[in-house]
Amino acid sequence: MNRVLVDSNVILDIFLDDTTWANWSEMTLNRLVESHQLLINPIIYTELSIGFQRIEEVEEAIARAGFQLQEIPKEALFLAGKVFVQYRKNQGTKSSPLPDFFIGAHAAVLGVSLITRDIARYRTYFPSVHLISP
Predict the structure, then answer these.
(1) What are the C-alpha distances in Å from 19 to residues 15, 58, 114, 133?
(2) What predicted TM-score, i.e. pTM, was given to this entire model?
(3) Range of 122's domain?
(4) 71 DSSP assignment
């Protein structure tokens, strides 16, 4: 079965019933769920957990939605660091790697597509990653 990494903004669209994006996000995931394993990683998990009071609630929501939590391999962590160095050379102002760097590097190392609405940073720093976006 194919795999696809799902960015937290897409999942939050559905969890929060975003008036602008929930339909697109839900239709996209419904289209892919039959042929793809829907993956999240610890960074995405962390971003999702902010909206829940208890770990049991986030665990239930993730399980009910069919997302599989996958650890980020060392190769992706290394790549995220290298991309951060490139970001700083490009006048980036953040002092530590951004969550998008870990997510993009994970997709790049796995060789999977990434479903996201936040495409600018991924296109810039991970041009090899196929983006599924509006």
Answers:
(1) 11, 22, 22, 17
(2) 0.94
(3) 2-132
(4) P
